[in-house]
Amino acid sequence: MLRTATQWLIQATESGHDRYYVRTALAVQQISRVGLTPAYTAANVDGHSIPNSDGMFLHVKTGGTACTVTLVIVSTVDGQTVANKTVVIGTTSERMIGPFPPNTYNHADGSVNVDFSAVTAVTVAAIRPTS
């Protein structure tokens, strides 16, 4: 399978699976004082990889499907793995999620990994304020 520059090959050991899948990189959009009309991307069945930066958050919208958003946590406490953060979003709802402290959420490449329990009629935007 040919992969584009906007996709990352990730081994799914984070979620306990023994397969490889492609996470789609999601660009972060910046809010400014003139405003932002965010562009939303369909949630990817294999998740998204999002570059983390100061104040970055996700805006997730659901249509006719409820969804659980899973944020993969990479930190440990006393050598113990910390459970991933999950956020349940009801049918035809939306939720702003974040920010993401780098020591807890950043992978080696500086990204946050996000998974979705359902992707039908689920859209997402990564947004950060102007610093």
Characterise the protein shown here.
The protein is mainly beta. It is built from one helix and 13 strands. It has one domain: Hypothetical Protein Tm1070, Chain: A. It has a six-stranded mixed sheet, with no helix packed on it. Strands 3, 4, 6, 11 and 13 form a five-stranded mixed sheet that branches. Strands 8-9 form a two-stranded antiparallel ribbon. The radius of gyration is 15 Å and the shape is globular.
Keywords:
131 residues, mainly beta, Hypothetical Protein Tm1070, Chain: A, six-stranded mixed β-sheet, 1 helix, 3% helix, globular, disordered N terminus
Chain-wise SSE layout:
Elements: E1 7-11, E2 20-25, E3 28-30, E4 41-42, E5 48-51, E6 57-62, E7 67-71, E8 76-77, E9 80-81, E10 85-89, E11 94-97, H1 102-105, E12 111-116, E13 122-128
Parallel strand pairs: 2-5, 3-13
Antiparallel strand pairs: 1-2, 4-13, 5-12, 6-11, 6-13, 7-10, 7-12, 8-9
The fold-level CATH name is: Hypothetical Protein Tm1070, Chain: A
Helix count from the secondary structure assignment? 1
Oligomer class? single chain
User: If you compute it from the alpha carbons, what radius of gyration comes out, rounded to the nearest whole angstrom?
Assistant: 15 Å
Helix content: under 10%
- Poorly predicted tracts of residues: 1-19
Structural class of the helices, strands and pairings?
mainly beta
Total tally of structural domains:
1
Q: What is the class in the CATH system?
A: Mainly Beta
**Overall geometry:** globular
Q: Estimate the strand proportion.
A: 35-45%
What strand order characterises the main sheet?
1-2-5-12-7-10
